[in-house]
Amino acid sequence: MTVTSAASGTVQPSGGLPLAVDLSGVHKSFGHVRAVNGVDLKIVSGEIVAILGPNGAGKTSTIDIILGLSHPGAGSVSVYGMSPRHAIDRGLISAVMQTGGLLRDLTVYETVEYTASLFAHSQSPREVLQRAGITEIADRRVGKCSGGEQQRLRFAMALMSDPELLVLDEPTTGMDVEGRRNFWAAIRKDAELGRTVLFATHYLEEADAYADRIVLLRRGRVVADGTASEIKAMAAGRTVRATLAGASEAMLRDVPGADQVEIRGETVLIHSRDSDATARYLLTQTAAKDLEVAARGIEDAFIALTGDDAEPAAPVAGVAR
Amino acid sequence: MTSTAPIDLSNRRAPGFGAFNLTALKLEIRRLARNRRTILISIVVPVVFFLAFGLNRSYDTQTAGSGNVSAFVMISLALYGAVLATTFGGAMVSLERAQGWSRQLRLTPLSPVAYIAIKVLTALVLGACSVAAVYLAGVLTHKPSMPVDVWIETGLCVWIGSLLFAAFGLFLGYMLPSENVMQFLGFILGLLSLIGGVFIPVSQFAHTIQDIAKFTPLYGLNQLVHAPLLGGSVPWTWPVNVVAWLIIFGGGAVWRFRKDTARV
Questions:
Q1: CA dihedral over B25, B129, B255, A60, signed as positive or negative
Q2: What does the DSSP 8-state code read for residue A82?
Q3: A276: domain CATH number?
Q4: How many CB pairs under 8 A join A and B?
Q5: Are residues A86 and A169 in the same domain?
Q6: Cβ atoms A218, A243 nearer than 8 A
Q7: pLDDT tens per residue, range A133-148
Q8: Which residue of B has its CA nearest to A119?
Q9: Would an 8 Å CB–CB cutoff place A252 in contact with chain B?
Q10: Can you tell me the distance from the alpha carbon of A42 to that of A13, in angstroms, rounded to the nearest whole number?
Q11: Do residues A30 and A67 both lie within one domain?
Q12: A46: distance to nearest CA of chain B, Å?
């Protein structure tokens, strides 16, 4: 971990509590393909973390390792201080997978009842159906449910053991906008109760909107790790805009953090790699007013960090490894 | 959202018996009962066969051991039904794998052994229904005749013996990926029943065919389930046939199952 922000720098477990997820130096190869190539990831209880990356970045492979569905070739994995299998046996961790995993000939209620029967402690099926928002289709056969309804059923199944950590692997693939919004509303509401959530996605807006912290994967490596705004800033910097009469380009170039400057009449635009320093300087050392700081879209950050021309060895803005 | 409520892991425990439980068993039986084709083939068809072939005018007067020929045919068709039922019950794993359910179960405490136990018990419940249906048809038609203890003994032999085919169903269910596995199995079981002497006694086959028949999976079992009715000594080749095939099917199921659940 190299990010030192308030949101994601709290990697040390407080009060001796084990980390929700602790991956260190995890490698996983399939033949010659290195799906996971040295991932370190520490997640503390209560975080909502997105693993963001293009297809083939190693998201699903990483999640399978956390869930104990596959073994890392090298490195170590622990979930709440124990092996994934033990954590699953104790109902500490559960997952919503992308597709499949449902029996078409059971009803929605029976599916949840079946799942409940497999845990030492489980919640009431009725209550969980309600939390997943599928009470009204409880008696419907799974095979007759829409994709969105099936996904909410998977969510209900995952809630059955009242897990500490909920893992979602591209949970909204194939859903329409409405279904996606409803699904995330249910997840968000659930997470307010303190559940730790880890989800993989290649939808940038999803990571941006629902995660406290984004871990950007590229070719099996973590290329950035921080809050959504940090990720945006680290790839693209921010644009600081202010009204400043009589500014010269030479003067603006000396402003801390400035990369590029532009003067449009009384308006100055400074593209900055450290917008805080730039803004502080402008407001305290110059007559600048009407100051605005704008991030580039996360999409730009995403492309900048995961594109093939990005050099992972070169730290971007000093925050990514 | 990062409020870290203290979590207590000490009250989290794993379920006993690898999460084997009666609710899951109940739901599995319900699933099997919902499958109309399975019920038709493994319960209705054997009863219809019995009504068609077991009630021949001369069968209630012709003796067979301590009973009559009608009873002999009834036992054969109960075996046929039970074998279909348990094979289908075991082969359901094929559909579950195709639907990703097996993978989903790996995210629960259910142990692979407990899962197999649930599958085998479900298959045995359907097998018992099949035997009961054919025997009930026998009782209602008043044709089959044998001592009460032989009714019970043969019924139990058929039912317990059909366990061999639960292993067969699991083996093929793990091996065959397609959704057409049921039709394929229906065909295979028809052939095995024919060559194993379930429909026509092996003694009526040509000599070469008889020799081959003795090595097929239904031969030993078919002979053994009729033994309580026919009396006489039991040659060692019958139980050896059953045990050998149990080792083959059971071993095959364990082998494929390990391959299926192995973590990559």
A1: negative
A2: B
A3: 3.30.70
A4: 128
A5: yes
A6: no
A7: 899 999 999 999 988 8
A8: B15
A9: no
A10: 10
A11: yes
A12: 5
Contact A306, A54 (CB under 8 A): yes
pLDDT at A316: 37
Q: Answer for the pair A92, A163: CB distance below 8 angstroms, yes or no.
A: yes
Substitution target from A65, A119, A123, A195 for chain B, most B beta carbons within 10 A: A119
A13 — pLDDT class (breaks 50, 70, 90)? very low
Contacts of A250 (CB under 8 A, 6+ apart): none
**Residue A176 is part of a domain; what is its CATH number?**
3.40.50.300
Q: How many domains does chain A have?
A: 2
- Strands, E assignment, B36-190: 63-64, 67-68
Helix (H) or strand (E) holding B113: helix B112-141
Interface contact flag, A86 B14, Cβ < 8 Å:
yes
Task: For residues A204 and A219, state if they share a domain.
Answer: yes
Q: What percent of chain B has pLDDT over 90?
A: 77
Residues A71, A174: one domain? Answer: yes
Q: Give the one of B6, B24, B106 whose C-beta lies nearest to A117's C-beta.
A: B24
State the residue range of the domain holding A180: 14-92+163-231
**Subunit contact B24:A14, Cβ cutoff 8 A:** no
Tens of pLDDT, residues A85-124: 999 999 999 999 888 899 999 999 999 999 999 999 999 9
Q: Which two three-digit tokens encode residue A211?
A: 């995660």
- What does the pLDDT look like over A30-52, one tens digit per residue? 988 899 999 999 999 989 999 99
A65 to chain B, closest Cα gap in Å: 10
Instruction: Please indicate whether, in this complex, the C-beta atoms of A105 and B31 are within 8 angstroms of each other.
Output: yes
Domain boundary among A206, A231, A256: A231
Return d(Cα A27, Cα A72) in angstroms, integer: 6
Q: Do A288 and A172 belong to one domain?
A: no
Does B99 contact chain A (CB < 8 Å)? yes
Shared-domain flag, residues A225 and A250: no
Query: Helix %, strand %, coil % for chain A, to 5?
Result: 35, 25, 40
- The answer to whether B263 faces chain A, any CB pair under 8 Å, is yes
Interface contact flag, B15 A120, Cβ < 8 Å: yes
Angstroms from A218 CA to nearest CA on chain B? 22
Residues A173 and A211 in one domain: yes
CA nearest to A92 within chain B: B12
| Domain membership flag for residue A119 | no
8-state DSSP, A56: T
Residue A273 lies in a domain: yes
Which of B107, B119, B179, B182 should one mutate to test binding to chain A, selecting the residue with the greatest count of A CBs within 10 A?
B107
Instruction: Check A106 against B103: CB less than 8 A apart.
Output: no
Write down which residue in A195, A211, A231 finishes a domain.
A231
Q: Residue A242: is it exposed, middle or buried by C-beta count within 10 angstroms (0-12/13-18/19+)?
A: buried
Residue to test with chain B: of A43, A114, A161, most B Cβ within 10 A: A114
Judge: A104–B6 Cβ closer than 8 Å, yes or no.
no
Do residue B104 and residue A102 have CB atoms under 8 angstroms apart? yes
**A151 in B contact zone (CB under 8 Å):** no
Condensed to tens digits (0 to 9), the pLDDT of residues A246-255 reads 888 888 888 8
Place of tokens 């991030």: A295
A246 belongs to a structural domain: yes
- Say what the pLDDT of residue A312 is: 42
Query: Global pTM?
Result: 0.81
